[in-house]
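Researcher: Structure for this, please.
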Amino acid sequence: MVDHSSWSKDLAVEIAGQDVINHAGTAALRIIADRTGLTGGLSRALARRGFVPVHDRGRVLADAAVLIADGGRVLSDLATLRDQSELFGPVASDPTLWRAPDEIGDTPRSKIARVRAKTREHVWSLIEKRHGRIPPSRVADQDLGKTIVIRIDGTLVTAHSEKELTAGT
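Model: Predicted structure, token format:
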């Protein structure tokens, strides 16, 4: 079985120094995907008999998720990881990233859903082990009890179109 987290074994975080990387948060996201078992689970879900890809498809999907979380807008933004090969090692090419979703049929899609659910359950259990329960959300100094609040930031982007009957945001 492939050790998906081997790339991060000797990783150290410093305030300054040589070989400083940009987008440092991408490394943390990738480590979380690897160490929670998400990357390995995706790899098993996407494994096909008789097909050994150059780039493991679980790694490709995990890297695509990191790309999106890092603000990537197009698949070619995967170059952000690829350009830091000292840190991330081999990262799939743009054509491989384009092919990966097309290779996923209904059965692998169901397996991916199960892997995501299992990983989510595992992460929640780790949080509960550490804190005794899911830490409560607080709003206006009040404990919301078992209610879980997911904070999402959004940015409005002004858009203009010459099409008929369109309006700005």
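Researcher: Any notable elements?
Model: Helices lie at 24-35, 38-46, 57-69, 79-82, 85-88, 94-102, 106-131. Residues 6-135 form one domain.
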